[in-house]
Write a structure and sequence with these properties.
alpha+beta, two-stranded antiparallel sheet, 8 strands, elongated
Length: about 200
């Protein structure tokens, strides 16, 4: 059989492209190594509960047209991702923000937090980070690295942070506001019922 497009990957991009191509009369074949569509945003039912197989994936955008387009395929709840990290018996807000800095150091202003971070970066003396550990310390200082980056990262990757490349953590979000919202986007949500209906 002849196809106009072969789409490799049935995640959100591949699925939307296939849908739109088919809508204008193109023949498409979508292939994926997984047995389901949705990519990492896939959910499956377990004991009556929709579970994100690959961890929580929240759809978010600031573009109203994109939000309205996606709402044609699912009803989204209004979900705000505001994770909390546990280090021993201490709880900290993520992404790193003024609530986090206040809990760690007792600082109250962005200036105080920035000074504390810069002091720890200077003490580390890292000029060119050669691994993830050095990169993280050069971004947020040693206290935050030790409490909120090191253990999680090493568990996730199965390696010591000093054995991982520096580029992995260059996107570390640091915010000097009292706001626990992980995303800055205007529209955020998870499909009610856990899945976007078939396109």
């Amino acid at each position: 059989m002849q196809y106009d497009y072969l789409i490799v990957g049935a995640g959100l991009f591949g699925s939307v492209f296939a849908y739109e191509a088919k809508r204008v009369g193109k023949k498409v074949l979508v292939i994926d190594k997984r047995s389901h569509v949705g990519g990492n945003a896939y959910t499956e039912e377990m004991e009556g509960i929709q579970v994100h197989r690959y961890g929580a994936h929240i759809f978010h955008t600031s573009d109203e047209r994109v939000w309205n387009y996606m709402n044609r395929f699912a009803v989204f709840n209004r979900y705000t991702n505001s994770p909390v990290a546990r280090y021993r018996d201490e709880l900290y807000n993520l992404p790193f923000n003024m609530n986090t800095f206040h809990a760690i150091w007792g600082v109250k202003t962005p200036r105080e937090a920035k000074e504390r971070i810069q002091e720890q970066i200077r003490e580390a003396g890292i000029t060119v980070p050669s691994n993830l550990e050095e990169q993280a310390i050069s971004l947020v200082g040693r206290d935050i690295y030790e409490k909120l980056v090191k253990g999680y990262t090493e568990k996730q990757w199965g390696k010591r942070a000093s054995e991982l490349p520096a580029f992995i953590i260059k996107r570390l979000p640091v915010r000097f506001v009292y706001d626990n919202n992980y995303f800055n986007d205007r529209y955020q949500g998870i499909p009610v019922g856990g899945a976007i209906r078939k396109l």
